[in-house]
Amino acid sequence: MGLSDIIIVFFLAVLCFAAGVLCFYIPFQNLKKQILHLISKDNISSSTSLDEVDLSVPLNNYIQQIKNQIKDQSDRLVFLQKKIDQVAAVLKEVVIILDEEGRLLFHNSQAREIFYLDEHQPTHYTEPVWNGQTPNSVPPLEEAYKNHRTQTKSVYLNEMIRSPDVMDLFQQCLKKKTRVTKDCVFRKKNQYLKSNFQVTALPFFYEKQKTVVLLFYDQTNIKESQQAHIDFVSNVSHELKTPLTAIRGYVEMLIQDLSQKKFDKFEGFLQILLRNCKRMGELIDDLLTLSSLASQVHLEKKRLNTKDITSHVIEQIKPRGRKLHFFFSAPYVMANPRWVELVLHNLVDNACRHTSENSNVHIRWEKMRDRVILKVKDSGEGIPEPYLHRVFERFFRMDPARSREKGGTGVGLALVKQSMEKHGGCVRAVSPKGGGTEFICEFPNA
Ligand SMILES: Nc1ncnc2c1ncn2[C@@H]1O[C@H](COP(=O)(O)OP(=O)(O)O)[C@@H](O)[C@H]1O
Ligand SMILES: [Mg+2]
User: Fold this and answer.
1) DSSP H helical segments within 40-128, as ranges?
2) Any domain includes 86
């Protein structure tokens, strides 16, 4: 290669370098100009020599400004989230939010009462946060969510609750993209009996995010009280209809006998009529007592002498040959005279009616710390274990025909229970296998 060739190559190399410098330098200068314009329109005039400007100061200020704005926004979000938590915590409903895969994103504190949730499960699903990575190592948002999901422990709807109905509702809401409501029956956490919930699913779709809000309203108590009301009306009707049917039948027979001038059975028929009229009267009295007790908000209590009230009640009961035994280690009880007499009357009357002649009935008033205990024990047929709770239900009878025969209305023990609860106390029945029943009433003596 000759000298002229070397000069040409050198010249071309210089030209290329100059072109390269121009290519990079000019856009950089333009960028610098734009940044200056953006950052500090007022301070830097377009005629300012770029070489004289130290870019690091306004850029730092600008970055600081952006940082402050981000902090401000994130503080606002935290505040908003706390507000949502507070509102959600006072709702009667259980609220949960799920993503489209059924993954739990949010729940209020009430959710822990019905769902199988880890104690440490945070109420909010934590969003993936920027952890100081350099900008080119920050993955796109979708990817960040995906990574986050695989790294953190997720809880899914089907793990929290075993209810095909709720799963179905959730799927329907996602598919139809509208609000759906359904009555669902399922077991709450650690509960044996199923509860009745009204569940509403609301879709909340935002850009690519699909979420569903589920609201659970526990209507078990409402359903139970509706059912109790229906049962009560039908029981009362039945209880009144039974003596009424008997009265009607015997009156018809009386009329027939009268027309045939047959008077030999008259007295017997009239006795039956009287007995059934009495039964109806007793039932109505018990029902009125029940409603009067239910309507009392606050019982007026007095310091009562246990011996006095016991002897007063015994005077009204016919022990029918049963031997009554008394024991008084608690001389006084704080109670309402009318309602404590009702308790004692019903328990002693039952004890006498469910034991045979000459058997023993024990009535004990005992003091135990801050409580006064009344115990009524008999040596009768006893109550089988499954019925020990049920005997306190209105109109419950183990043997309806026999109990009616013995003269009860089926409301007595329901009255005892209600009265004890109004006193702030309680009652329970125990019946050992060998026979006999003991009713134990606890009065708070404060
Ligand atoms: N001391 C008792 N021994 C055995 N069974 C009893 C006793 N007391 C109550 N029961 C059972 O509980 C049921 C409900 O009692 P109660 O409410 O007083 O109604 P009633 O006496 O009018 O039948 C009775 O029908 C009877 O079957
Ligand atoms: Mg009774």
Assistant:
1) 56-90, 111-114
2) no
